[in-house]
Design a protein that fits this description.
two-stranded antiparallel ribbon; 3 helices; six-stranded antiparallel sheet; alpha+beta
Amino acid sequence: MQIKKIKAVTLVELLVVLTILGVVAALTIPGLSKHSQKTEYAKLAQKGYVALEGAIDMAVVETGKEPDEWTSANVGSFVIRDYIGKYFIKAIDCSNTWSSNTACFSGYRNFKSENKTTPTVRAMLLPDGIVIAGHGNLPRFYIDVNGSNEPNMEGVDVFIFNFGKYDSKCQASATSGKWKICPVDHAKNLMEDNWTITYW
């Protein structure tokens, strides 16, 4: 009579397999989480950009005037106050006056820096938490994809866009250019990479 040998997994072998799986999970989960956050922020930045572009287009149509004819088109906070603020659907005006610390935009840090910049702005809070702020002294807009939540860092959750007359490559062209929103710093990288964050 032959005795059949039964192959079984020992406790030690099981513990080794579980340890390996734990190490693999520990190495991959943070990377997946970071990728998910980058994807979400890029999507929200694009959504904010589309909302900003749409509000400007609506203001041109409704007023029957190009930005050339707007009063103080070279000041982002005035553009929001006088022309485009009402065209952000279901948005909340976070600032009755322009300020360096509004209810929903209190500034940002430069990319990978601890130094905070607090520009004077007027800001609008969109229903999905995106904040669009217009600079008080420049034709500039800030899109903060998660409002006042951290990290409030340019290129991570805050993206900067200039507004003015530019050529097709967003080079300044005051006389022959067309009014458009042009990306600055990491917003430029984001748009060039087809709304994908690849630099952090």
